[in-house]
Write a structure and sequence with these properties.
The structure holds two protein chains of two kinds. The longest helix of chain A has 32 residues. Chain A is built from 20 helices and 22 strands. The radius of gyration of chain A is 26 Å and the shape is globular. In chain A, 52% of the residues are buried. In chain A, helix 6 packs antiparallel against helix 8. In chain A, a hairpin with a 2-residue loop joins strand 7 and strand 8. In chain A, the strands form five sheets. In chain A, strands 1, 2, 6, 7, 8, 9 and 20 form a seven-stranded mixed sheet that branches. A six-stranded antiparallel sheet of chain A has the order 14-15-16-17-13-18. Chain A has four domains: 304 residues, 3-Layer(bba) Sandwich (FAD/NAD(P)-binding domain), CATH 3.50.50.60; 138 residues, Elongation Factor Tu (Ef-tu), domain 3 (Beta Barrel); 96 residues, Arc Repressor Mutant, subunit A; 55 residues, DNA polymerase, domain 1. In chain B, helix 3 crosses helix 12. By secondary structure, chain B is α/β, with parallel strands linked by helices. A six-stranded mixed sheet of chain B has the order 2-3-1-4-5-6, sandwiched between helices. Classes of the chains: A alpha+beta, B alpha/beta. The interface between A and B is large, with 56 and 41 residues. Bound molecules: flavin-adenine dinucleotide (FAD).
Chain lengths: 629, 320
């Protein structure tokens, strides 16, 4: 490819979205340029030094299943692995680790440098080169021009970023880094809708000045569960975190000074989330309670900096110091860097399609915080999708669409482009309607075959995956061919319905209380099955009945995803829709029946009305018929 | 106007009796929608609490277990739904109060039917061939719709064809809200209806052919003549009273349409299943609540995951 172009794909920004985008584009066969401010900030964790969590952990597993970077890097940099929600079921389990910030950045940079066809250049992308409504490249602030057929923008919080500490305002993309202004203006000239959001980060503390012996601790899991399918062992030493709480005195100080917080003084115009990321929000919205929990997370193995998770703030530095010192264990703490809030431009993501491409501009893709999301995992997952599709756009291949029914990635993208954002968007497991099917444990089975067929999967992973697949298959057979009668079961202390029916080991495993070890007690040879395969088979057997039930709904949704609503379709002509639904339909302008069905207050009857009208208004009846059947 | 209200309007157009019009108006005015919405609100609140336990366990500020309270309330909600389903008022108003005319052969069942069919209270006048006996008649008694069913004469028989007719008669009797047990004044051999599910209170004994007998014989109890019309008004009055009681017993908020009943019954089943699944992982019980909500959503419209998150954020201090 690349005739007349310098590159197939240019990715602007070396954050979490940018790294995944660049790596995915290059893996998809595109000559790729990663253009970022500074090579030494590639993979910087701007905020909390942790990867994964509830919902977010799913995203990391999916990125990994598609042979992305984040999971592998987190395994190399993780210093406190914990699997959350262990007891509440496999579908809501969330792998999480704290990361050594420096190690993460170093590993990410190394990983980027290893990618074939990927070139890193430093520079400030200032403008897009356009050919009408077709993107043709990027121009840097110092006048360099790079031509490419596709451009992916992943500039995070940098677009007209403005940092607030009390009433001090500093234009910046992150503390100590200049913002990016040119691109926002270009977006405005192209008629794109921008909005403004805000987020914040807590002060960083000097760990040597914390009284660790006076606070609680949280330990890592004794058996760390890695993110990546490719990781066998976690080799980093695991650390403990401190746990403490705010006090009444903390609350008093914050309340007395609330007017000096940038978030409450009226200085910040950007919208914050409904949840409470800042300590000011917590105090204002939920009063005193019995204190708010704070995790003191060391930022690295050889780093004294401590990240106090739970007290992000935009109060003036002296007030920050005062309230932090009212917290047990932090009485004599030294603050290394004060916390701050940042306001930034984002692009209304309803202007994007499922590829994360701007609908009316050819070759322009957006990913990460620029689309109104928050979090590394959300950014990385979007980066992968945008990078992959940018490459396919340049190379003339079909787009790749993720669906709500196959991945959290699909859920997120569908949410973003259907509803847009009214607050920084963050992933939660409750956003996934097909949660039971979209588990962290089966991410590889869901997505690695796709990665293989798209050619973005390394040979090493492909081999390992096919070995795993056949091991699961063989294991399943082993379980299905071994069976016993209720009487035989009794000899092993297992009480079954005395119906004389033989039950296979696989059927027995579907019972809650029957663990794999119980099966081994009966058939010792089953112990030879690989432990990861055992776990997968136990979950599979237990969930089979629920999977079958969801499969039917999933088939419905897939059909609805294929029922396209033309862009010029008029909802107004449909009589029988309530005014409320009508105005929502006009606002969200769903592109498919599946998107329409996701609208709040939508009823099956209203969907039926839309379908009937789609059929009527379609000039080609055969197309419409296919849609409605 | 929401879907349920619109359905009410459609009902209104088709309403034939005063009670039906009242019921349809009740729907169209949104009373039923409000009840469904209240159910959905309760269910959403329960789901929000459970989802908060699933999505924010890593945040210290979610109370450890609100579950118990949730599962209790969901069982109460299921009870309410079940009670609504058990209340057949709306069905009676809409489909009519079913009265079966039963009795031995030649007790005068068909004569009574034909007599009533020709009176001005009969709604259905297009009786197929007046020569044939009427099988059912719709009456409007004081604003209530009444449907009278004729049944085959009940007696012991070996004839297979007649037996089928008798079996059908028993079915009609079982499904009826009221049974008129016809007895010829001259042959007071009463027949045994106790092998049907009817209670004595569901039955009125009506003695027939009063014109052929001495008035003294007819004294005490209800007797009618389809020749002179004597006693018929008093019979109709009794039926009408029974129907009014049946209709007023309910709160007129019962799910009216089959469509509603199906979804409510499914939602109710899911709530019961969730309540019973104590030994299951929380995510499975959460899934059952989601299924219940999906069913109710057919009546109220969809509650999005984002709306649930809104409920969580308004009650709990979460977010880091
Ligand atoms: C103060 C703060 C608080 C946060 N709080 C939270 C939180 O509480 N929870 C949470 O989950 N997440 C939080 N985050 C968000 C998380 O850090 C981001 O969501 C994530 O880093 C976004 O990734 P990204 O790749 O989109 O952008 P970033 O990681 O911001 O990366 C952007 C990259 O683009 C480069 N760049 C920008 N403009 C240009 C240009 N014109 N030319 C070349 N290069 C450019 C930058 O140098 C940078 O390398 C916070 C971020 C900040 C800054």
């Amino acid at each position: 490819m690349m005739t007349g172009f310098d590159f197939d794909v240019i990715v602007i920004g070396g954050g979490h979205a940018g790294c995944e985008a660049a790596s995915a584009a290059a893996r998809a066969g595109a000559e790729t340029l990663l253009l970022t401010h500074r090579a030494d900030t590639i993979g910087t964790m701007s905020c909390n030094p942790a990867i994964g969590g509830l919902g977010k952990g799913h995203l990391v597993r999916e990125i990994d299943a598609l042979d992305g970077l984040m999971g592998r890097i987190a395994d190399k940099a993780g210093i406190q692995f914990r699997l959350l929600n262990r007891k509440k079921g496999p579908a809501v389990r969330g792998p999480r680790t704290q990361a050594d910030r420096a190690l993460y950045k170093r590993q990410m940079r190394m990983a980027i440098e290893e990618v074939e066809r990927l070139h890193v250049v430093e520079g400030d992308a200032f403008d897009l080169l356009m050919n009408g409504s077709i993107v043709s490249g990027v121009e840097t602030a110092d006048g360099r021009r790079y031509a490419a057929r596709s451009v992916v923008i992943t500039t995070g919080t940098f677009l007209r970023g403005l940092i607030h500490i009390g009433n001090e305002k500093t234009p910046a993309g992150r503390v100590g880094e200049a913002p990016s202004v040119g691109l926002s203006e270009r977006f405005e000239r192209m008629g794109m809708r921008l909005g403004r959001l805000k987020t914040g980060t807590p002060a960083r503390l000097d760990g040597k000045s914390i009284a660790w012996n006076r606070i609680g601790v949280q330990e890592a899991d004794s058996m760390p569960v890695p993110f990546s399918f490719m990781t066998d062992d976690i080799t980093n030493p695991q650390i403990v975190c401190g746990v403490t709480r705010t006090t009444e005195e903390t609350h008093r100080i914050i309340r007395d000074n609330i007017h000096r917080s940038a978030m409450y003084s009226g200085d910040i115009k950007g919208i914050g989330p409904r949840y409470c990321p800042s300590i000011e929000d917590k105090i204002v919205r939920f009063g005193d309670r019995d204190g708010h929990q704070i995790f003191l997370e060391p930022e690295g193995l050889d780093d004294d900096t401590v990240y106090p998770n739970g007290i992000s703030t935009s109060l003036p530095a002296d007030i920050q110091e005062a309230f932090i010192r009212s917290i047990p264990g932090l009485e004599d703490v030294r603050i290394k860097v004060p916390g701050y809030a940042i306001e930034y431009d984002f692009v209304d993501p309803t202007q994007l399609d499922h590829r994360l491409a701007v609908r009316h501009v050819d070759g322009l893709f957006l990913a990460g915080q620029i689309n109104g999301t928050t979090g590394y995992e959300e950014a990385g997952a979007q980066g992968l999708v945008a990078g992959l599709n940018a490459a396919r756009h340049s190379l003339g291949a079909d787009p790749v669409k993720f669906s709500r029914t196959d991945s959290y990635i699909g859920v997120m993208i569908d949410d973003l482009i259907t509803f847009g954002v009214s607050e920084p968007y963050r992933m939660f497991t409750s956003r996934a309607e097909y949660r039971l099917s979209l588990r962290a444990d089966n991410a590889d089975q869901r997505l690695t075959p796709l990665a293989i067929s798209l050619g973005i999967c390394s040979e090493e992973r492909r081999e390992r995956y096919s070995r795993y697949e056949s091991a699961v298959h063989d294991g399943r057979t082993e379980l299905q061919v071994r069976s016993l009668t209720p009487n035989e079961a009794e000899a092993f202390g297992l009480s079954l319905n005395k119906d004389g029916v033989r039950r296979s080991a696989y059927e027995l495993l579907s019972r809650n209380e029957f663990e794999f070890s119980d099966a081994e007690g009966i058939w010792p040879e089953l112990a030879n099955i690989d432990s990861r395969v055992k776990e997968a088979l136990k979950i599979e057997a237990g969930y089979a009945v629920y999977m079958d039930r969801q499969a039917a709904t999933i088939a419905d949704i897939r059909r609805d995803e294929a029922r396209v609503i033309p862009a010029d379709f008029s909802f107004d002509i449909i009589s029988g829709l309530s005014n409320e639904l009508l105005s929502k339909l006009n606002r969200f302008r769903p592109l498919t029946i599946a998107q329409a069905s996701a609208i709040e207050g939508m009823t099956p009857a209203a969907l039926a009305l839309i379908l009937v009208h789609l059929r009527k208004s379609s000039p080609d009846m055969s197309v419409a018929k296919r849609q409605v059947q | 106007m929401d879907l349920v209200e619109a359905e009410g309007l459609a009902e209104l157009v088709q309403a034939e009796t005063a009670a039906q019009r009242r019921l349809a108006k009740y729907l169209a005015d949104g009373h039923l929608s409000r009840r469904y919405d209240a159910w959905m609100k309760r269910l959403s609140q329960a789901r929000a609490l459970i989802e908060a336990e699933l999505d924010f366990t890593d945040e210290g500020d979610i109370p450890g277990s609100v579950s118990d309270q949730v599962w209790q309330d969901m069982q109460l909600l299921a009870d309410e739904m079940a009670a609504a389903l058990d209340d057949h008022t709306a069905e009676i108003v809409r489909e009519g109060f079913r009265v079966a005319i039963a009795g031995p052969p030649n007790a005068g069942k068909s004569s009574l039917m034909n007599f009533l069919a020709k009176r001005d209270v009969a709604i259905v006048t297009d009786i197929a061939g007046t020569t044939r006996d009427v099988l059912s008649v719709d009456l409007d008694l004081d604003g209530n719709r009444i449907v009278l069913f004729d049944t085959a004469g009940l007696r012991e028989t070996e004839d297979p064809v007649e037996r089928i007719g008798i079996e059908r008669a028993r079915q009609t009797i079982n499904a009826a809200d009221l049974v008129l047990h016809l007895v010829d004044l001259g042959e007071p051999t009463s027949l045994d209806l106790h092998d049907t599910s009817k209670l004595d209170s569901d039955m009125i004994v009506v003695r027939t052919k009063r014109d052929r007998h001495h008035p003294a014989e007819a004294a005490g109890g209800l007797s009618v003549s389809t020749v002179t019309g004597e006693g018929v008004d008093s019979l109709l009055k009794q039926i009408s009273q029974r129907a009014s009681v049946a209709v007023q017993g309910g709160q007129l908020v019962t799910p009216l349409l089959i469509r509603h009943r199906n979804h409510i019954s499914a939602a109710c089943d899911w709530l019961r299943a969730a309540g019973a699944a104590e030994d299951h992982a929380l995510e499975l019980r959460a899934e059952m609540l989601r299924s219940a909500a999906d069913d109710l959503a057919h009546l109220t419209g969809r509650v999005t995951p984002d709306a649930l998150l809104g409920l969580i954020f308004s009650q709990f201090c979460v977010g880091k």
